[in-house]
From TrEMBL:
This is Cytochrome c domain-containing protein. It comes from the Bacteria.
Amino acid sequence: MAIKQLSDGGPDGVALGQEDDKIGFLGATPSAKATGFTAPAATAATSTTPFGFSETQANAIVAWIRAADAELKAKGLIGS
């Protein structure tokens, strides 16, 4: 079976979905765009605590990674 291209090759690129559309990939149930992703503070790492981050910074980083991971899995972009 031939691959179907979604792009027409135009210089402006391709957008998949509109603001309120739900999207799913590779058989995943379509879901709405995730909200509430707040990147951890961009405070510079230090050498005064383990790994150069305070416990609060480390927890924020882990929480952000877990939320991003869950959303990518929900959309079908990465496996479980």
